[in-house]
Amino acid sequence: MSQIADYIKDAEIGDTVWLYDLNANNYNEDRKYVGRGKWYLVKVDGKTRQSLICHNDKFDIATGHARGRSGFTPTMTLYGQKEYEKRAWLQKNETDVKRAVERCNDVEVLKRIAELVGYEEKP
Length: 123
What we know:
Low-confidence stretches: none
Strand order of the largest sheet: 2-1-6
Distance between the termini: 58 Å
Strand content: 25-35%
Structural class: alpha+beta
Shape: elongated
Number of helices: 2
Radius of gyration: 19 Å
């Protein structure tokens, strides 16, 4: 099996990268719709100076976005393993963390969170 590139900028032909397809629908085990977006492992079939080619689609090496007509939001993006781990964690946990912070009534905890995210206290 080919290796999974840590970052797309380092991917070479034959490596594997993560493809996030925003148009793919997700369903749980009970076939209940749970949202849009799906992760796939794909092989890098070709490479140019500015693009990676996977499944006949070109992706910008700098951004990972699918190269398409200008003015359209890309629906497919490539990520390396380390980028995937960050995005996947954020996707799974962001809403629950936000809700936990909203429910928190401990002033000291909220002050530490404010400091971590760079929030400046109102006078």
